[in-house]
Design goal:
Strand content of chain A: 15-25%
Protein name (chain A): Phospholipid-transporting ATPase
Helix content of chain B: 25-40%
Subunit structure (chain A): Component of a P4-ATPase flippase complex which consists of a catalytic alpha subunit ATP11A and an accessory beta subunit TMEM30A.
Strand order of the largest sheet of chain B: 1-10-4-7
Strand content of chain B: 15-25%
Pfam family, one (chain A): Cation_ATPase
Shape of chain B: extended
Order of helices and strands of chain B: HHEEEEHHHHEEHHHEEEEH
GO molecular function (chain A): ATP binding; ATP hydrolysis activity; ATPase-coupled intramembrane lipid transporter activity; magnesium ion binding
Distance between the termini of chain A: 49 Å
Largest interface: A-B, 103 and 103 residues
Oligomer: heterodimer
Radius of gyration of chain B: 30 Å
Structural class of chain A: alpha+beta
Number of strands of chain B: 10
Distance between the termini of chain B: 56 Å
EC number (chain A): 7.6.2.1
Number of helices of chain A: 41
């Protein structure tokens, strides 16, 4: 099938006007041109090295440090650290320097390791062996050493190491077969041609004698476009120039098939190959959670600065009167007195910043990184995502995006190899309404599955028999399938008798292979085409020979193909097969009704159907047809058009024989997965390079389109009839009307959109030209938004990325996910927020460039609905909790400034300040964020609609953030003033002095701080305990363990005179506090009061407006009691959530 | 075979942890737990609150301000900075027995013992009896580390320098005769401060350790002469010094001065007239501070503290109230688990 024409059209749309910026001249075999040719200007080309790594050994440290300090948080901590070094601050530089150093080191190690892996992967590609012809000999070298101009030998099933111009092949006609599956997803074999003047070279020596140059355009990313010229210098003759086109260019990444070896010359190498140009530069993907985290961070930074400013201003207001500024008991040193007031104020401001800097927790970043890194192991460990066939489980390439998996709104999926197995299978055929299914064959006997179909009239046996014979012969003859050469007729025969499933057909259309294979299974085997005779082995084991007279090739406008053959009995027969819509109008007789019914039934099943018809030609008919055809073929002008006319005349008056059904087997559970994704509120788009009909059939099969789906077409065919403008507006109207009619009941009708690459680029291009013709892009997006499913066919790899980008940039900024398996999907995988690679048959480029790689499409369901959901709620809690606990931590310190004359006196001891985030409160939240399951995995899988609960970053929106912050403020106020009133109004004392009784001791400021701190640690830990829904032994261990650790640490810290400290201010403070009854009572009281509002809020929210998840949680106890009602209940709960 | 091995190698471990299927307790804040829980907590809190409140009520406190700002105050004459060695007498009477043991505090207000610079202005090495630190006090003590002649100050720093130095003598006036009330100054500081944290240098006599150093600028006597009556109560382990060195958390504070536990006052201060002789030394008016003396007795829960009792009562009632509100909510909006 000839796609080049269509491709050219697409490429014209994609790339726009071709621009000859420059051309390059390649000297084949690095030979200098003969004198007299243009001046020899050696051009410099990159070598054939592929680089995907970010760092080298030398630039790692500076570049990585630079990248890390570009992060706002790291930079902030660096500044704080420097401030602490420079000025006299309330806390020691160690308190911020140590954690910062820790964070930077951990991150650098992680990134270095990841880059090392990339280096290794690059290396294995670059070191892969390649055969090059040098001085008439084949020399084995490494891929990265290839240079432009090298002559390369590629053998069967090898992948081309760079972009090559075919010189000659082992086939005598100078052609070779190539599959570009890993480039554009088409697994069919394509034929590439050598230039006439070079195709005769057979050996290395001969090739080496070639003296020629190639002039071609500079590299550009369009896979289907190449313009060049080869100049061949022969002895003392004028050079012969031949044009070169895309049909001569073998692309890197494609694989040589069915050809022993080829000789070809390298024109584009390394990062200039079309495959590499189709890769997009890797940009650091950041998850939505990280973005909200940064937003929160900025809020907190603002709070921090305003706190520091308020305190500085108040300090100077407070110190206005000299007795407060410098009371007699607290004189300044001379140096301090001489300092200018502005400098003093600025220093004070910085000191306040340092004092409050813990509000932005450095440990949050460590914890988040650790959570992501460790958490991602649950994906790789997941046994359900392990594929037995591949022997591999899911892979995580970047752990930064775990939570993004829970936020996906748009799923862009490739078709071939992702949704489908990329494996055509013949399902059934029907002759006059009688269905034949290959599975029902026993010993070559066809058992008609007639019981499955209504026999309206039982035709006479002879008539039926005749049609049956013709039908099977038609399918055996009407195709362009080639037979692998090494298969002999005898071996084929033997294979059939032994029931060996041999696959020896090759064709540019996998459907045709499937059909011919299917015929073989039904007893009719196409053997070969020899000397224009097609040989068929029929089910009686006899060889029938038909003379092939004419092939009326397939084209996508006519959507059918025909052959004219002459049977051994001298009959002229025209067999035609094609899409039902193009056959039925031309049929004059046959059981149209029955066949039509069957075809429709099959189409709904998602099978790819073709109708088969024939026409008996008389001698005169045949002569006439020949005349038409030859005339058209010889025409110099409008050849295409005239051929079409000729075909139109010949292909008519058919007798309908029957129909076939071929299935591109969907991947296991693909439909179920898509259904779940739909239920989870995601929009699924299929982006494929395949043709529309095929893609649409797959969409139906995978339940992307349902029978009720109203299909909107935005294809080249339509835009040719109407202008793009009209079509767009019409579709938009349809959609809008429907929306206004349906009103509340949105589900009553859903739309599916089909758009092709050409139209898409027209839509996008129109926008660039200006607003004159209206904003097509917006209208298009508007239509898409109202469609539950969109199919984009005939997409070039970069177009896939364009679509993703378009949606990403639309005004809701939805989170996108791209899933694909081939190199053609790499650009979209890189573009989308989350890129998922399927470890497919078509190489590993997609898996390598993806963020996550899974063995099968069905694993996407668990990946998103379970892992994504878990990761999201985990990290959301992590982020909110971190901010909360640091508000609780630092706000009392802020309040304390009002009672210590704004002197930056820390409320807590240095050890507490440093360890609060590092050890007292870090492990419970880290472990929570690793193992929390607010509902069980099974519930999540069973009820995809729970995914909607967390959509749109719902747990990290501003109201939620505000709630947490207010809760933190409330708790902080309770802690501080609780302690304040206990200390202030009265003598808060202990009467249980150690050793003696009946004494009264005074508590100092460290006891005050320790009391607040104790309440703080207990409250924030218990708050997390309240939020924990899934108490494994780990949670128990960590939560109670860290509380115990706090107590033990405090006892130890205060129980010993630490020799390395120059102050002993905490000595026995904690013990003395615990020896006081009121301290115990107030700790209990303050913890209770701090936790009360959250408990009340939880209970009331659950009662008044429960979310779907909360309902699912509530129904959990019932489920465990009565497993049989699980399904019913989950259904009812999901219904209630709408 | 090779493939099978590879498969096994790649296959993830099927353990409960890796598959996230660890057995777990999945509690939920459901009606059945929360409402009874709230009622229970509420009742318990109310109980504690009542107990605390009643106890607190039974505690007696007597506070007398003696700053002398007011012209009618007996200490008015001393409030002038220029008057040295001023003594004033504070008269008060008790209507009934002030139950013992009675604790005698002094209180300061608007006094920031929690200034950062002030708080750091001490040398713990010195205070633990390290003689090297005697000759070269830590920088943190600055500007109270060296006197004008660059002689080291021991104990150095602002805290020590500003030690409270008013002294009190309490008399019971019986028939116009002043009868000395014995005050017990032992064990008013933390046991650990007295026995472990603060150490005098192991030099006898103590005075020799202080050779080459000077007393803090504001001190009338050097550290080794703080208590002339008891040689063991001198230097850094002087009880009053220890009490002072434990800085107060807030600007209005009181510190324990003495206990009244001995002899006939074991049961408390009997009703009658009392006279408190105050050696007024400590200047507070310059920073608008006040000074006071406080007599108080204690209970099992410490000093007088109505706040804690009231807070318990309020929180307890709130809990009960919330449980009622929740009950109403539950009745109105049926919970899913009630179905």
């Amino acid at each position: 099938m000839d796609f080049t024409q269509l491709r050219n059209i697409i490429s014209r749309y994609c790339v726009g006007e071709e621009i000859w910026v420059d051309s390059r001249t390649v000297y084949i075999g690095h030979k200098e041109p003969p004198p007299g040719a243009e001046a020899y200007i050696p051009q410099r080309y990159p070598d054939n090295r592929i680089v995907s790594s970010k760092y080298t050994f030398w630039n790692f440290i500076p570049k990585n440090l630079f990248e890390q300090f570009r992060r706002i948080a790291n930079f902030y901590f660096l500044v704080i650290f420097l401030v602490q070094l420079i000025i006299d601050t309330p806390t020691s530089p160690v308190t911020s320097g140590l954690p910062l150093f820790f964070v930077i080191t951990v991150t650098a190690i992680k990134q270095g390791y990841e880059d090392w892996l990339r280096h290794k992967a690059d290396c294995s590609i670059n070191k892969c062996p390649v055969d090059v012809v040098q001085q008439g000999k084949v020399v084995r070298t490494q891929s990265h050493k290839l240079r432009v101009g090298d002559i390369v030998v590629v053998r069967e099933d090898e992948t081309f190491p760079c972009d090559l111009i075919l010189l000659s092949s082992s086939r005598y006609d100078g052609t070779c077969y190539v599959t570009t599956a890993s480039l554009d997803g088409e697994s069919s074999h394509k034929t590439y041609y050598a230039v006439q003047d070079t195709l005769a070279f057979r050996t290395e020596q001969e090739v080496d004698t070639l003296h020629a140059t190639i002039e071609c355009e500079q590299p550009q990313p369009d896979l289907y476009k190449f313009v060049g010229r080869i100049n061949i210098y022969k002895d003392k003759e004028e050079p012969v120039a031949r044009p070169l086109g895309a049909e001569n260019l073998l692309l890197r990444g494609a694989t040589l098939k069915n050809t022993q070896h080829i000789y070809a010359v390298a024109v584009y190498t390394g990062m200039e190959t079309k495959m590499a140009l189709n890769y997009q530069s890797k940009s650091q993907k950041r998850s939505a959670v990280e973005k909200s985290m940064n937003a929160f961070l900025i809020v907190y930074l603002f709070i921090l600065i305003s706190k520091a400013v308020i305190n500085t201003v108040l300090k100077y207001a407070f110190q206005w009167s000299p007795d407060r500024d410098e009371p007699w008991y607290n004189h300044r040193t001379e140096i301090e007195r001489q300092r200018h007031v502005v400098i003093r104020a600025f220093t004070d401001f910085l000191a306040f910043m340092v004092l409050f800097n813990y509000i932005i927790p450095v440990s949050m970043y460590v914890t988040v990184e650790m959570q992501k890194f460790l958490g991602s192991y649950f994906i790789t460990w997941d046994e359900e995502m392990f594929d037995e066939e591949l022997g591999e489980g899911a892979q995580v390439n970047t752990s930064d995006l775990n939570e993004e998996l829970g936020q996906v709104e748009y799923v862009f999926t490739d078709k071939t190899g992702t949704l489908t197995e990329n494996n055509m299978e013949f399902i059934e055929c029907c002759v006059d309404g009688n269905v034949y299914i290959p599975h029902a064959i026993c010993n070559g006997q066809i058992l008609s599955a007639a019981s499955s179909i209504d026999m309206i009239d039982s035709s006479p046996g002879g008539y039926r028999r005749e049609h049956e014979d013709l039908f099977f012969r038609a399918l055996c003859l009407c195709h362009t399938v080639q037979v692998k050469e090494e298969e002999t007729v005898e071996s084929i025969k033997r294979g059939i008798h032994q029931g060996r499933p041999t696959s020896f057909y090759i064709s540019s259309s996998p459907d045709e292979v499937a059909l011919v294979e299917g015929m073989k299974r039904l007893g009719y085997t196409y053997l070969r085409l020899k000397d224009n005779y097609m040989e068929i082995l029929n089910k009686d084991d006899e060889i029938e020979r038909f003379e092939l007279l004419h092939v009326l090739n397939f084209d996508s406008v006519r959507r059918r193909m025909s052959v004219i053959v002459k049977s051994s009995s001298g009959e002229y027969l025209l067999f035609c097969k094609g899409a039902d819509s193009s056959i039925f109008p031309r049929v004059v007789s046959g059981k149209v009704e029955q066949v039509k019914a069957r075809v429709e039934l099959n189409a709904v099943e998602g099978l790819r159907t073709l109708c088969v018809a024939y026409r008996r030609l008389s001698e005169s008919d045949y002569q006439e047809a020949c005349l038409h055809l030859n005339e058209a073929k010889l025409a110099l002008q409008d050849r295409e058009q005239r051929l079409a006319q000729a075909y139109d005349i010949i292909e008519r008056d058919f007798v309908l024989l029957g129909a076939t059904a071929v299935e591109d087997r969907l991947q296991e559970k693909a439909a179920d997965t898509i259904e779940s994704l739909h239920k989870a509120g995601m929009k699924v788009w299929v982006l494929t390079g395949d043709k529309m009909e095929t893609a649409a059939a797959t969409c139906y099969a995978s339940k992307l389109f349902r029978r009720t789906t109203q299909i909107l077409e935005l294809t080249k065919k339509r835009t040719e009839e109407q202008s793009l403008h009209d079509v767009l507006f019409e579709l938009n109207r349809t959609v809008l009307r429907q929306r206004s009619i349906s009103g509340l009941s949105v589900d009553c009708l859903d739309f599916g959109l089909i758009i092709d690459g050409a139209t898409l680029s027209a839509v996008l291009k129109a926008n660039q030209e200006g607003a004159g013709c209206g904003n097509y892009r917006e209208i298009f997006l508007d239509i898409c938004r109202n469609c539950s499913a969109v199919l984009c066919c005939r997409m070039a790899p970069l177009q896939k990325a364009q679509i993703v980008k378009l949606i990403k940039a639309s005004k809701e900024h939805p989170i996108t996910l791209a899933v694909g398996d081939g190199a053609n999907d790499v650009s979209m995988i890189l573009e989308a927020h989350v890129g998922i690679g399927i470890m497919g048959k078509e190489g590993r480029q997609a898996a390598r460039n993806s963020d996550y790689a899974i063995p099968k499409f069905k694993h996407l369901k668990k990946m998103l609905l379970v892992h994504g959901h878990f990761y999201y709620i985990r990290i959301a809690e992590l982020v909110q909790y971190f901010f909360y606990k640091n508000v609780c931590f630092i706000f009392p310190q802020f309040l304390y400034q009002f009672f210590c004359g704004f002197s930056q006196q820390p409320l807590y001891d240095t050890a507490y300040l440093t360890l609060y985030n590092i050890s007292f409160t870090s492990l419970p939240i880290l472990l929570y964020s690793l193992v929390e399951q607010h509902v069980t995995m099974d519930t999540l899988k069973r009820d995809p609609s729970l995914y909607r609960d967390i959509a749109k970053n719902s747990l990290l929106r501003w109201p939620v953030f505000l709630y947490w912050t207010c809760l933190g403020l409330f708790d902080a106020v309770i802690f501080f003033f609780g302690a304040y009133f206990l200390f202030d109004n009265t003598t808060f004392t202990s009467n249980g002095q150690l050793m003696t009784t009946n004494t009264q001791m005074m508590f100092g400021n460290w006891t005050f701080g320790t009391l607040v701190f104790t309440v703080l640690v207990f409250t924030v830990t218990l708050k997390l305990a309240l939020d924990t829904h899934h108490w494994t032994w780990i949670n128990h261990f960590v939560i109670w363990g860290s509380l115990l650790f706090y107590v033990i640490f405090s006892l130890l810290w205060g129980g010993i005179i630490w020799p390395f400290l120059n102050y002993q201010r905490m000595y026995y403070v904690f013990m003395q506090m615990l020896s006081s009854g009121p301290a115990w009572l107030s700790i209990i009281l303050l913890i209770t009061v701090s936790l009360l509002p959250d408990v009340i809020k939880k209970v009331l929210c659950r009662a008044l407006c429960p979310t779907a998840i909360e309902r699912a949680q509530s129904s959990r106890p019932c489920l465990t009691v009565e497993p049989s009602t699980i399904f019913m209940l989950s259904q009812s709960s999901s219904r209630m959530s709408f | 075979m090779v493939k099978a091995e590879k498969e096994i190698a790649n296959r993830p471990d099927n353990t409960a942890f890796t598959q996230q299927r660890l057995p777990a307790w999945q509690p939920m804040l459901s009606a059945g737990i929360v409402i009874p829980g709230f009622v229970l907590i509420g009742l318990a809190f109310i109980g504690i609150g009542v107990a605390l409140f009643v106890t607190s009520r039974s505690i007696e406190v007597l506070e007398i301000d003696y700053t002398g700002e007011d012209k009618n105050s007996p200490c008015f004459k001393c409030s002038d900075q220029d008057v040295k060695n001023c003594v004033c007498n504070l008269e008060f009477s008790l209507d009934s027995l002030f139950e013992g043991p009675v604790f005698f505090y002094y209180g300061l207000s608007n006094y920031f013992q929690n200034y950062r610079k002030y708080a750091a202005s001490r040398d713990d090495d010195q205070l633990s009896g390290d003689l090297d630190a005697f000759t070269s006090p830590s920088d943190s003590c600055s500007p109270f580390d060296l006197n004008g002649n660059d002689k080291p100050i021991v104990p150095c720093g602002a805290i020590a320098n500003s030690m409270f130095n008013d002294t009190f003598v309490l008399y019971r006036v019986v028939n116009g005769v002043k009868k000395l009330v014995p005050l017990d100054g032992k064990g008013i500081a933390w046991w650990t401060d007295y026995n472990v944290k603060y150490r005098n240098p192991t030099v006898t006599p103590l005075k020799n350790a202080f050779n080459g150093t000077v007393k803090p600028i504001s001190w009338p006597k050097p550290a080794y002469q703080l208590d002339t009556s008891d040689p063991a109560n001198n230097g850094f382990i002087n009880q009053d010094f220890l009490v002072w060195m434990r800085r107060a958390a807030l600007p209005d504070f009181r510190k324990l001065y003495r206990r009244i536990t001995e002899g006939e006052y074991e049961k408390g201060l009997p009703a009658g007239n009392y006279s408190l002789k105050i050696a007024y030394n400590y200047p507070v008016l310059s920073f608008h501070g006040t000074k006071k003396v406080v007599f108080s007795n204690v209970s099992w829960m410490g000093g007088k503290n109505e706040f804690l009792g009231i807070a318990y009562l309020v929180v307890g009632s709130l809990c009960v109230l919330m449980s009622i509100v929740m009950l109403i909510v539950y009745a109105k909006f049926k919970f899913p688990e009630d179905d």
